[in-house]
Amino acid sequence: MITSQPLAVRVRLIEPLSPTLKRVSLEHADGGLLPTSPPGAHLALILPGEKRQYRNSYSITTGADQRSRYEIIVRRTADSRGGSAFIHDELRLGDVLTSALPNSQFPLQNRARKHLLIGGGIGITPLLSFLPQLRARRDWLELHQFSTRQEASVFEKLLDPFGGHDVHVNVGRQAVALADLLARQPLGTHVYSCGPKQLMDAVNDTALALGWPPVRINLESFGAFGGDAFSVTLSRSGREIPVGEHESMLEALENAGVQVPSLCRGGACGECLSTVLDGVPDHRDHFLTTEQKAEGKLVMPCVSRARTPYLTLAR
User: Fold this and answer.
1) pLDDT tens, position by position, 87-121
2) Domains parsed from the chain with CATH numbers
3) Residue 39 half-sphere exposure, CB side, CA atoms within 13 Å?
4) At residue 130, what are phi and psi to the nearest 5 degrees?
C-alpha cells in the first residue's frame, strides 16, 4: 500500500553491472524534475506480477542534487519473491512504474565529527547517496565496503568517482577487524552500516561493547523475510491468514486484501506498526526499542515474523 502521493517514473536506462546486479535509471514519467531525494532515501516501487503486484523498496544511489533521474541497483536473488526477478527478467526501457515519494529513514547526521560508512554487498546502495553530499561539504569520512572477490571490481567502479585514501573495498569480512576499526575512531564519529544482518549485528554489537552511544550507531536494513510458516489472525474479523516461508507478514496481509499502511518496508519507519494480542513476535526491525521488543505487544509486519505458530493482531 502506497500511503503518500504516488509518483510515476519511466525507465530510461538498464545497465547490467554483474551477472546478478543491474542498475536502473528512472526519470519522471511526465518530464521535468523529480522530487528531491534526501541522502539514504528509498523508492517504494509497485511492480506487476502474473498473480499479484509486488511492493519493493530500493535505495536511491544518486545524490540529493540529482533531480533529472533516480538510480537504483537491484540484485537478482536465487530465492526472489518476485520483485528482483521482474526487474532482471521483465523490466524494459520505457516502462512506467508507480512509487511513493522518496523517503529516508537513514539520514546523514549533520553534527557528526566524522562519518564512518560500512557496507556489505548490495548494502553499499544507500551509502552511495551519502558520498556526493559528504564530498561537497568536505566532511571527514571513511568508507569500508565488504565484498566477495568476484564482485570487488564492480564496487570499485561504483566508488571510483568518490575515491580517495578514505574509501576502501575489502575482499571478505576478515579483511578488516571491526573492533580495531571502531576503536580507533575519534569521539563524535557516527557509524552507518547497511548489508547482511550478520554484518550489521556485528557493527552494532561491537560498537556498543566499545562504549559507543546508541544514537551514533545508524543501521539500514533491507529486511530478512525467510523463516517458518505461521498464521496471522485478525481480531476484528476473525480471519486467519497464512504466512509462507518465503513471504513477509505484510505481503501475506496485502495479498489477502488487508490494507496495512506501509512505507519503508524494511523495519525502520514504524508506518506498519501493529498491536499483538496473542502469540510471540520474532522481531527483526530497527524501530522498536529493546524494551518494546521484550514486551512483545507490538510488531512490524514488514520484516518481523512469529516465534509461535500464530500471531493475533488488533486489526
Assistant:
1) 999 999 999 999 989 988 899 998 999 999 999 99
2) 6-104 (2.40.30.10), 114-220 (3.40.50.80), 230-313 (3.10.20.30)
3) 16
4) -75, -35
pLDDT band, residue 267 (cuts 50/70/90):
confident
- In DSSP terms, 55 is beta-bridged to 46
Distance CA 24, CA 11 (A): 7
Beta bridge partners of 72: 24
**How would you classify the pairing of strands 141-147 and 114-120?**
parallel
β 281-282/305-306 pair status: antiparallel
Closest to 39 (Cα-Cα) out of 158, 122, 126: 126
Longest dimension (CA), the chain: 59
What b/e sequence results for 221-256 when a residue is b if at least 16 CB atoms lie within 10 Å of its CB, and e otherwise? bbbebebeebbbbbeeeeeebebbeebbbbbbbbbe
Please give the C-alpha separations between residue 161 and each of 128, 156, 200, 258, in angstroms, as whole numbers.
Answer: 10, 9, 26, 45
pTM of the entire predicted model: 0.82
Q: What is the pLDDT of residues 4-33, one digit of tens each?
A: 578 999 999 999 999 999 999 999 999 999
Question: Contact, 2 vs 46, CB < 8 A?
Answer: yes
CB atoms within 10 A of CB 91: 16
